[in-house]
Amino acid sequence: MLEMVAIGELLFDVFVLPDGEVRVEFGGSPANLCAHLAGAGHRVALCARVGRDGLPLVGILESLGVDVRWVSVDDDVPTTRVILRRQPGAPEFELERGADALLKREDLAGLELRDVKLVHTTAFALSRPPQREAVLSLLDEAASSGIALSLDANYRPSLWDDPGEGRDLVLSLVPRTRWLKLSSHDAEFLLGTRKRGEAIPRLADLGARGICFSMGPGGALIVDGGRELYLPAPDVEVVDPKGAGDALYAGVLHAFLAGRAPEEGAELGLAWAASVLRCRGSLPEGKGVIEGVKTPTASKIQSERKEET
């Protein structure tokens, strides 16, 4: 039986480096979580939607032990792509929304929540219909069965048709969660502040119980039931910071699923984060780097680079 079900984005991260190199990697916060937890022996499933070009992403998850029975493949729409330009003055990211937002409740046919301890989702997954309705329906089903909820509050106004409505929706879910993940950057968009001393009390006032608040090089703060645990950032040579916050949070959720104290999970999460920071990609040992696979976006960018030179 499954212990955790995650519903949300599985996508390509397309990096455009200063030297013109284009790199394609495995992406999606809930997918990263599932990969880490499956590696720790937990029975986890991801509910998502990709285009046929996203089959390598599904293959990575399957190879890591994640249940992919509810990852749908769209024959007509390509996999969602996040384009990250590592160049001065470039935007945080550019998004080419594709199949992920088309996930529907009927795509989850056969999914049973019996014995599931936790259902996880993200603000990203809530930003577009019909996926929004599928996510909210699953959250309601989980809550009515007494299953704990987890939310990655990775809210970005640009992803929503109505940013104010989106912010209100994400904040309305805070009191329903057992665990809430957000970075200081997320907090700036959602709460108007990056400061943990301002963000944490506001979230607590909203009814948040467990919070994993990451601050990049400034470390992280785990809050649970009034207790606070500060974690310094791993002391490693950073190759790529992408996915480190997901790795840390996976440790926290590991402890929850195993019935252990958050401190134990935080220690494991730090180790996972360190392993991610030391390599390319969002998974340990570079497993998230997709060699030899060209998304339409990557091919287009490479063609444009050749024309410029």
Order of helices and strands: EEEHEHEEEEHHEHEHHEEEHHH
Low-confidence stretches: none
Report the end-to-end length measured between terminal Cα atoms: 55 Å
- Give me the CATH fold name: UDP-N-acetylmuramoyl-L-alanine:D-glutamate ligase
Global mean pLDDT: 91
Query: Which of globular, elongated, flat, extended, rod-shaped describes the shape?
Result: globular
* Proportion in helices: 25-40%
Instruction: Indicate the structural class.
Output: alpha/beta
Oligomer: single chain
Largest sheet: 9 strands, mixed
Report on the architecture of this protein:
The chain has one domain (4-308): Ribokinase (UDP-N-acetylmuramoyl-L-alanine:D-glutamate ligase, 3-Layer(aba) Sandwich). Helix 1 (29-39) packs across helix 8 (244-258). Helix content is 36%, strand content 21%. It is an alpha/beta fold. It has a nine-stranded mixed sheet with strand order 5-4-1-8-9-10-11-12-13, with helices on both faces. The chain has a four-stranded mixed sheet with strand order 3-2-6-7. A hairpin with an 8-residue loop joins strand 6 (81-85) and strand 7 (94-96). It has helices at residues 29-39, 55-63, 123-126, 131-144, 163-173, 184-191, 196-206, 244-258, 262-277, 296-308; strands at 4-7, 11-16, 22-27, 44-51, 71-74, 81-85, 94-96, 118-122, 148-152, 179-183, 210-214, 220-224, 227-231. It contains ten helices and 13 strands.
Features of this protein?
309 residues; alpha/beta; UDP-N-acetylmuramoyl-L-alanine:D-glutamate ligase; 10 helices; 36% helix; 21% strand; globular
